[in-house]
Amino acid sequence: MNSNFSQKLLPGMVVEVYGSFYIVFHRSKYVSCALRGKFRKLLSETHNPIAVGDRVKFSYSDNKNGVIEELMPRRNKISRPTKWGQIKERIIASNVDQLVAIVSTKQPVLKTGLIDRIILVAERENLKFVLCINKIDLINDGEINDIIAIYRKLRYPIVASSAETGAGIDELKSILKNKFSVFVGQSGVGKSSILNILQPGLNIRVREISNYSNKGKHTTSSVTAVPCDFGGFIADTPGFRDFGLWGIKKEEMGFLYREFRRYSDKCKFNPCSHIHEPECAVKDACQRGAISELRYDNYVRIYHSYDELEK
Ligand SMILES: Nc1nc2c(ncn2[C@@H]2O[C@H](COP(=O)(O)OP(=O)(O)OP(=O)(O)O)[C@@H](O)[C@H]2O)c(=O)[nH]1
Ligand SMILES: [Mg+2]
Ligand SMILES: [Zn+2]
C-alpha cells in the first residue's frame, strides 16, 4: 500500500458508467473507480448496481483511480427494463430532481404517448417534470399551440426550443439551474445538441444531419452527467425507442395522471380503470372537455399495452 493514498473515504457523485468502471466527480475532479466486490451480489437484480447520480464514498488507489466503497441511500431512481419482459432492471439515473422530456416538432415526429409515459415515471418517483419541445425552427408559429396548451393546463413547465436558432435555451437554463436534470426522449430529437449549447465546450457527438433517416442508430450510447457552469448537473441519455414503465403497475396509472385525481373518487366503481366501467367520473370529465381527449386516449393505449405484455 502506497502511504500517500490513505484509506480515507471521500464523498463523490457517479457521473458516468462504462463497463465495470465508474467515473466519480469529487471536488471538480474526475476519478475512475472500480467497485468493491461486495456490490457484485446486486448484479442478479440490477444490470448496474451503481448508477449515474449515485452518491458514493470512495478511496483513492493512486492519484487518478479509486475504489467505490459505499453507496449512499438513493432518494429516487429512474429505471427501465433491459428488454421488454426481462426482469433485470437497468437504472438510468438516481437522486434526480427533474425529468426533462425532449421531443421534436418534426424529424422525428412528435409523439405525445411518449411524453405521457415519461410523465408517469416522473409522477411515480415524485420528480418534477419538464417538457421541452425542440426544433421549433422547423414549423410555423402556432403549429404546436394545442399540445402546449394541454400540458400547460396540467401545470408542467414547457419550453419550446431550437438548438438551431437558440430559441428557448435561456428559459431552459433557468429551469435547470442548480438541479440534477435528466434528459430523456427519442433518438434524434436533439438532446445532445441542446446540452452542447447549454454547456459550451463539451463537444458531445450529435448526429450528422444527413443521417436522419438512419433510424435505430443512437448517437449517444451511454448516460453521462455533466456539471454545468450555471449550476447543477444534466444527464444526457441515449434515445429510448420505448420508455419502459419499470415498476409501474397498470392499476397505478390512474393515480399518476394528475388531472384524474379530482374525479376518480366520484367514479361509481372503486377501483375504476376509467376505461370500461359505467358511471366513470373520469370518462365524464373527458366527454365534457375537462380532461384532454389526447391525454385520455394515450392513457387507454398505455393501459392496453400492458395486456400486450401479459400475452
Ligand atoms: N433543425 C433543427 N435541427 C436540430 C435541432 N436540434 C438538433 N437538431 C439536429 O437533429 C439531429 C439529432 O440531434 P442529436 O442532438 O444528436 O439528437 P439526440 O437526441 O442526442 O439523439 P441520440 O443521441 O441518438 O439519442 C442532429 O442532426 C442535430 O443537428 C433543432 O433545434 N433544429
Ligand atoms: Mg445524443
Ligand atoms: Zn373511473
Mean pLDDT: 88
Number of strands: 13
CATH level 3 topology of the largest domain: Rossmann fold
Strand residue percentage = 15-25%
What does the largest sheet look like?
6 strands, mixed
End-to-end separation: 57 Å
User: Quick one: CATH class of the largest domain?
Assistant: Alpha Beta
Shape: globular
CATH architecture of the largest domain: 3-Layer(aba) Sandwich
Strand order of the largest sheet: 10-9-8-11-13-12
CATH superfamily of the largest domain: P-loop containing nucleotide triphosphate hydrolases
- Percent helix: 10-25%
Gyration radius, in Å: 21 Å
Bound molecules: guanosine-5'-triphosphate, magnesium ion, zinc ion
Give start-end ranges of low-pLDDT stretches: none
Please give a handful of descriptors for the protein shown.
alpha/beta, Rossmann fold, Ribonucleotide Reductase Protein R1, domain 1, 3 domains, 5-stranded mixed β-barrel, 8 helices, binds guanosine-5'-triphosphate, binds magnesium ion
Description:
The chain is an alpha/beta fold and 311 residues long. It has three domains: 10-73, OB fold (Dihydrolipoamide Acetyltransferase, E2P), CATH 2.40.50.140; 78-236, 3-Layer(aba) Sandwich (Rossmann fold); 250-310, Ribonucleotide Reductase Protein R1, domain 1. Helix content is 23%, strand content 24%. It has eight helices and 13 strands. It has helices at 112-124, 145-153, 169-176, 191-198, 253-256, 261-264, 281-288, 293-310; strands at residues 10-18, 21-26, 29-35, 55-60, 65-71, 77-81, 89-94, 98-104, 128-134, 158-160, 180-184, 224-227, 233-236. The protein has a six-stranded mixed sheet with strand order 10-9-8-11-13-12, with helices on both faces. Strands 1-2-3-5-4 form a five-stranded mixed β-barrel. A hairpin with a 2-residue loop joins β1 and β2 (21-26). The chain is globular. It starts with 9 loop residues before the first strand and ends with a helix. Residues 191-192, 219-220, 236 line the site of magnesium ion.
